[in-house]
DNA sequence: GTCGCGGTACATCGAAAGATGCAGTCGCGG
DNA sequence: CCGCGACTGCATCTTTCGATGTACCGCGAC
């Protein structure tokens, strides 16, 4: 039995969804929420297998609610919306949603989608999939030249300094932020340059950038 | 009528696919190819609506063939493979495939997939979708803060110097590469720092990185 | 022409960065 | 306990950087 929580602010739509879900023998609607905060609260309380989440909701929007539910590991989230705006799609997926459906999906497909996500798989409306693919393909390939393993040779302090270098801070700035003498900052800079085989803080900053620090 | 080209090196599998496709009244198999080069050639010749493309093929693999077909705008490509290796999936999608199916997909879903892609939408096997989402979500958000327009205020020489800064070169290094006195390099650095409202070459280097220079 | 202006170029000088030596503090095995 | 090594911290000294003033050239406006 798949335990589902329905989060949708328009009661008419919510009733329709619940009706559809109840029609399936293997699906149980364990709760309903009419805004994002309720959705998160009920997810904590009821521990459903899956949350059917609308995006447009008062108090806490669906994307934020999704982020929270996923972050706490409460349930998988299947996002449901009327509009397939890129902003919504990508926002929801980044927030950790397992699926993204448009509301024009018919009852049969909705049930199938719920089962698919409950199986731990992912699902996206075909109309949206193409744009997701396009977005994905457009992503620059993560240059693997920046090897995170070299960071292992650095001490914690050195990593902190490196991070600051990545922001373009001067030694004095770093000294203030990390609360140490400028001379000490220089020591750390010098040491990490040696370990990373770099010749100046500029190269260190570039490296920090590539490593996403 | 959806005109389909089937590209698959194993003749038994290919026969099976053709059989399934022919069973649909709205789908027509206009050609078959047993390797990647044939697939591209036939796509050029026959101009199908869609190419059903296997990944493992001799002479030219499916990903490369897909890239070529898409680049020439010949047809949409639906990739079909036995293994859902990340390498295949991401490679195929980057190459411009509109869909990605596993071979364990049943006949009904295969036909539906063909129709979906032919409609201009996208389609991905549920088993693969979740990983695609994960991969997508993991991508760092491309910070748009780096505004290429600020570069317009720089002179050619200053842009050249900025580019060198992005590589982490010292003033002496830059002087050598651009064949000018170190003092001159300093002038340019100083000027571009002013124009870009930066406080050190380190920040300039970081900016150059973000701008992909 | 010649005046102004933007781009390029160089020299000087104070400020910052980087190398180096050294000291205090942990934690660990002998 | 003691020695040892790794980490952190600071001070001194040389190198590099960056701001500033100046000069030359090419080009369009006057």
From TrEMBL, chains A, B:
<dbReference type="GO" id="GO:0003677">
    <property type="term" value="F:DNA binding"/>
</dbReference>
<keyword id="KW-0805">Transcription regulation</keyword>
<keyword id="KW-0804">Transcription</keyword>
<keyword id="KW-0238">DNA-binding</keyword>
<dbReference type="GO" id="GO:0006355">
    <property type="term" value="P:regulation of DNA-templated transcription"/>
</dbReference>
<dbReference type="InterPro" id="IPR058245">
    <property type="entry name" value="NreC/VraR/RcsB-like_REC"/>
</dbReference>
<dbReference type="Pfam" id="PF00072">
    <property type="entry name" value="Response_reg"/>
</dbReference>
<dbReference type="Pfam" id="PF00196">
    <property type="entry name" value="GerE"/>
</dbReference>
<dbReference type="InterPro" id="IPR011006">
    <property type="entry name" value="CheY-like_superfamily"/>
</dbReference>
<keyword id="KW-0597">Phosphoprotein</keyword>
<dbReference type="InterPro" id="IPR001789">
    <property type="entry name" value="Sig_transdc_resp-reg_receiver"/>
</dbReference>
<dbReference type="InterPro" id="IPR000792">
    <property type="entry name" value="Tscrpt_reg_LuxR_C"/>
</dbReference>
<dbReference type="InterPro" id="IPR039420">
    <property type="entry name" value="WalR-like"/>
</dbReference>
<protein>
    <submittedName>
        <fullName>DNA-binding response regulator</fullName>
    </submittedName>
</protein>
<dbReference type="GO" id="GO:0000160">
    <property type="term" value="P:phosphorelay signal transduction system"/>
</dbReference>
<feature type="modified residue" description="4-aspartylphosphate">
    <location>
        <position position="54"/>
    </location>
</feature>
<dbReference type="InterPro" id="IPR016032">
    <property type="entry name" value="Sig_transdc_resp-reg_C-effctor"/>
</dbReference>
<feature type="domain" description="HTH luxR-type">
    <location>
        <begin position="147"/>
        <end position="212"/>
    </location>
</feature>
<feature type="domain" description="Response regulatory">
    <location>
        <begin position="3"/>
        <end position="118"/>
    </location>
</feature>
